[in-house]
Amino acid sequence: MASNPLSKLSEEQYLAIERAAEFKSEFVDGEMFAMAGTSNAHALIQRNLLGELYMALRGGACGPFGSDSRVRVPGRAYVYPDVAVVCGPQPTTGENRDILIDPVAIFEVLSPSTEKYDRTVKSRLYRTIDSLKEYILVSQEELYIEQLSRQPNGLWTIRDYVRPEEELKIDSIGVVIPLRRIYDQVDIAPATE
User: Fold this and answer.
1) N or C: less crowded end of the chain, CB within 10 Å?
2) Are residues 62 and 173 in contact, defined by beta-carbon separation less than 8 angstroms?
């Protein structure tokens, strides 16, 4: 017995639906996925990252955007990272004024319900973006940050941060953030080693 394949959405169809929707959905390879809600710890970490990045980058060519900003993964997806840093002008008029292009650094705050998706599907998607130099995963369950950095030869390296006295060094945008500021006001457990 033959089955009917699900029809996939085009990018144009997704954008039309998404722009009219009340709630956000991501788009990957022709399919839409509803976005999950977040915890207070998630919101605090995201706020802290945005604040630190804004203060460090203000007045320069780069700037941070929060999870209401849609990022285009060319030919594959539209996603809403928790924080994206872009350098250079972004569209502010026309039909693509609500899409970020060419992010340099992307941060995802890991939630129990989205961690697997962020580590697999999103990680693979993000690493196909030519401009992306840093993909940073921040745990909200324990003091733990995982930084993937693209090297000049195109390979990715991983660095883990587990101590509150450490500083997250983001070479692609010239920013250093103490972990204690990222986790400010968050009741967090020490990392399990």
Assistant:
1) N
2) yes
* Euclidean distance between the first and the last CA atom of the chain, given in angstroms as a whole number: 51
Mean pLDDT by 10 residues, the chain (193 residues): 61 92 92 87 96 97 94 92 92 79 96 91 95 97 96 96 96 97 90 67
**C-beta of residue 172 within 8 angstroms of C-beta of residue 134:** yes
Structural domains in the chain, CATH included, are 40-182 (3.90.1570.10)
Q: Is 76 exposed, middle or buried (0-12, 13-18, 19+ CB in 10 A)?
A: middle
Measured in whole angstroms, the distance separating CA 142 from the mean position of its chain's CA atoms is 19
